[in-house]
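Hi V.,

Quick status before I head out on leave. The structure for the redesign project is tokenized and pasted below; the design run finished overnight.
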């Protein structure tokens, strides 16, 4: 049995798919299998898949009801201990990153590395939570990205597959339940693992993201916890806005000077 199942889902993204597949089939590790789930693409995606078919353990191209149904198809067919969802457009940063992640793997439910992406023309390394203890509140206000995470396959047996009624946040719902509410063990490795394509649906449809998150929170969290966290999140947003505002800091400084007379120490 392989340690890892890398699952790529794709729909009409032939250029992104080519980058993704090439980054996977060129890995030095032999401890993974590769599955490609295509949603019945009408571009040249299937031709690309066939080109690399000898290095793909399983692939299918048929219509589906969205990204989470496609991901669930991959989970059902996967035989690895862990699943990594590397969707078309995302790619592994170097040929040895899978080997590094799988080397002396710790006993954990989710192992994750770094995500790399471009922001304002600059490459940025994102170290989610940087190895600290992940809390329910972390999952309330944030999430893990799919691509740099290795998810133990047995978690899907315990908590179920992805909720296919959701279009964007089913992965976040899964993390909220497994990590936030059930304290599944998460381990971080400081390895630059994947390049993230910012053109996915979750990055471009913020309104739907917000709407679905609200529905999930009402389903999953007890009302008292949800109301408290809404207050915490609101306070956090206020502080972030104040930190970004030079005028706000000017006013705060002058209030301190007025009430505490700190100006005599400056």
């Amino acid at each position: 049995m392989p340690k890892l199942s890398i699952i790529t889902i794709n729909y009409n993204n032939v250029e992104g798919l080519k980058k993704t597949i090439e980054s996977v089939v060129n890995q030095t590790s032999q401890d993974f299998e590769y599955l490609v789930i295509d949603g019945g693409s009408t571009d040249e995606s299937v031709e690309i898949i066939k080109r690399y078919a000898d290095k793909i353990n399983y692939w299918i191209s048929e219509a589906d009801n969205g990204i989470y149904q496609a991901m669930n198809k991959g989970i059902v067919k996967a035989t690895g201990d862990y699943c990594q969802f590397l969707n078309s457009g995302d790619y592994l940063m170097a040929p040895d990153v899978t080997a590094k992640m799988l080397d002396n793997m710790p006993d954990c439910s989710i192992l994750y590395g770094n995500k790399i992406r471009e922001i304002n023309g600059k490459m940025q390394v994102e170290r989610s939570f940087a190895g600290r203890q992940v809390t329910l509140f972390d999952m309330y206000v944030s999430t893990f990205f799919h691509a740099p995470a290795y998810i133990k396959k047995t978690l899907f047996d315990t908590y179920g597959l992805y909720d296919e009624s959701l279009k964007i946040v089913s992965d976040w719902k899964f993390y909220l339940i497994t990590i936030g509410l059930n304290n599944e063990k998460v381990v971080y490795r400081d390895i630059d693992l994947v390049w993230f394509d910012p053109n996915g649906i979750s990055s471009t449809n913020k309104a739907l993201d917000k709407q679905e998150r609200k529905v999930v929170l009402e389903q999953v969290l007890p009302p008292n916890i949800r109301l408290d966290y809404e207050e915490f999140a609101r306070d956090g947003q206020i502080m972030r806005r104040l930190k970004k505002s030079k005028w706000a800091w000017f006013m705060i400084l002058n209030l301190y000077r007025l009430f505490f007379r700190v100006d005599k120490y400056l």
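Above is the designed sequence. The CA atoms of residues 178 and 184 lie 6 Å apart.

G. will cover questions while I'm gone.

Best,
W.
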